[in-house]
Amino acid sequence: MKLLTILLAGLCASTFGYLIKVPTTPTKPRIAPIGWVNIQKLMLPLFDNICEDSSDPTIVKLSIEFAFDSADFLETEVIEKLQSFKSSKGLLAKGEIFSETIDEHFNEFRLVYNVLYNAKDFDIFYKVACWARQNVNCGIFTNAIYLAIMTRKDTEKLSIPAPYELIPNYFVRKDYIIQAASLISEKDIFLSDNIREDGNTFIVDANYTDYESSEEAVLSYFHEDVGLNSYFYLTTLKNLPWIDTEFQRNVRYGEYIYHFMKQLIIRYDLERYSNDLYETDGINWDDMEVTRYDPMIMYSNGNDFTSRQGICSQDVISSLKDIENNIATTVTHLRDGGFNKAAILRHVMDIMLFNDNSYINLAIKAMTDDISTKSSLSALSHSMTKLRDPIFWRIIKKMVENVSNSLKVLPGYTKNQLYFPGVQIMNVDVKKVMTSFDPYVFDVTDAMKYGDQDPNFQIKINQGRLNHKPFAIKVNVSSMVVQKGIMKLYLGPKVTLGEIRENKNLFMLLDSFEINLKRGSNLITRTSDEINNISDDFVPLRTVRKNVIDSEFGVDALPLNSVRSQIGFPSRLILPKGSSDGLPFQLFAFVAPYIKAIPGGSKANIQLNYDAIFSPGYPFDLDIDIQELFNLPNTLLKDITITHKTESKPGTYGSGYNREKKWDVVDDNIMDYDIPSDPLALGTRPEFTKKKDAFDYKSRKGQYGKKDKYTIDKTDPITKIPDETVEFRKDIEFNKVYTKNEENSDNIQYKVISKKDENMAIDKIITKDVKTEDKEGTSIDTTELDKTIDDIVNDLKVEPIYLLSSPRRRYPTIFNIILKPPYKETESDERVYE
């Protein structure tokens, strides 16, 4: 693509020039070359009716001809280990239930994956996949093929199928699955109230589970969201510690895993806040009430998922308490041994998540009796279904609390890791944020079809899923110098400044991205579809098939998207549900420096701030002075409201309880603030969060008289009336805070700050044209202003600077916790076939 370079030069000392690359031709989306099209075409039949033997001729032929030749694999021992396991213990039968919590099942899955991953080329990989498709248990094959596609270079740009299309019975209530199956099997079809016919397609309207506890029923739309459960399943697979990828080898691997779990429970607590529910309670093993839970889903062999009754194993409770009591001691011991935070969290995550007797595995074992009843397991036994069970969220909460408390022994961030000299966030603007429940339809035909059937006949499931309207966040940043930084945006519940210290773990990282600051004002706009590490809904398998056929006939229809870009957090769930009259939230904006702040501004000992900014939870992952953080000029806390389209409901959705939330409880010892008795209650919300009544213009009809009464003639005399009013047009100064009187601004409320309160934490958000003088003690380097235009232009020719532009390439991962991988523009996609 041709590029035209334009040099913009300033005409006075207060402005300066910078380079912008302007494309002279439109940018085309990356389309899959013919090699990727062929690979995609070969892979598609592997996913048809995945829990039954394939009838595809190619798969049948290659599965029979496959030979276990160790020379075809990068690690020769992987094929020997699989054969040894097969001969000694035997492979799990195709009709049996697979669970990652059963050691024998998990070991077999690991062996099958290693064989797939270590195949020397795609041809060998595909032959192994065909053999596994016909001979390996459905659950093991599904896990292994997903993980292999996510980790192999020659499959990294395939369009992967949605898990809920392959095994819909793990995601949708069994009564609707039975209805869908009957529509395929029976000749005489009787339509019910929840079944619609649309040509050759039958659409089954499926509600969510109605729990015995109405508190959990109100959140069933979140627990059971097909996108959220698919995300957790695929991310859990991708995060397994024994996989040999760059992610697992990264020194911050433990930090990323902890951040993933922490972000997950924060997002859940925000949804509880939206429904007027308590913050999640972590499990207290000594005193806990566990409600019976029936997932109401079924296995592919027809058996139901077992209901969870409560605590099933008291013997495991003592082991769980030992971990909780000793985790802080472990962190202290590692700290004293010279380990940094990244290394410490790697060890801690092994204890909490990855070891055979990890905290989370023991907690699941304490809640279930699945090991003794392998024929019928519970929702906690599968990564696809764990989030459906409300008790799993309490387990995550307890685990995150234990880790967070143990990290308090580590030194917090210093001011020079948080302060950004010369940078100030002037304002944050967010317009009209709205959520709704939108109908989401997905195809389940391939998972249920059998024999020769009409290829145009389809069965689809329709569910109401939480979504949001497109929105944009605008941040106005003032900078004294040209420099780079990291912008972080956090979303949290509306709490007072005094309560933020106790509730910093309720702020979810919404986005994190690099910014290029120029001298002066920088208006940074971030739209909802630009947020990092999120993914749209999966492309339906039927659409992928059509794209492949179109591509074979010369139509550029198959996009070349990385697998990682398809398995991020569901974009439709980035915002918690609002309310009809506007639910108050807070947006925390933070511009982090690449270089540590040095007193005196000396450049002799420049230190990079990588230890902080590359930590995914920075700045909330360590114990810091929240008041000091929020007083920094490079931070800003903005009140926003999220409204909800009231006529949209997900089925069993209810209005929730009017209960006092934990974050409403005010600790009088925190800070002396004027705090409302219930700041989160709908009736006492700030006026700006309430929906205003529509103005009735018709009621004013006629009061202004008729048009002809206001006409004048040129001959009419004009009488000048003396002006006896005083027009306040000047800026008004109150203790160094300037306000401007504007038209139609009679209702503007100005906050006057006295000199004695200058150290008091206040909102730095000013809603009108407000000017502030430079703070006392701030020194401004004027050497840049003394440069001539030629000096500026010469400086700018060294390296082009791209202003306020977010990276075009995304690297979807866990809430922006994975570093950008190296990308070479000259590297051809066809290299995988050489």
Automatic annotation (TrEMBL):
Residues 162-331 form the Hemocyanin middle domain. Residues 413-644 form the Hemocyanin C-terminal domain. It holds the Pfam family Hemocyanin_N. InterPro entries: Di-copper_centre_dom_sf, Hemocyanin/hexamerin, Hemocyanin/hexamerin_mid_dom, Hemocyanin_C, Hemocyanin_C_sf, Hemocyanin_N, Hemocyanin_N_sf, Ig_E-set. GO terms for molecular function: nutrient reservoir activity. Keywords: Signal, Storage protein. Residues 1-17 form the signal peptide. Belongs to the hemocyanin family. It comes from Pieris macdunnoughi. It comes from the Eukaryota. Gene3D superfamilies: Di-copper center containing domain from catechol oxidase, Hemocyanin, C-terminal domain, Hemocyanin, N-terminal domain. This is Hexamerin. Residues 39-156 form the Hemocyanin N-terminal domain. GO terms for cellular component: extracellular space.
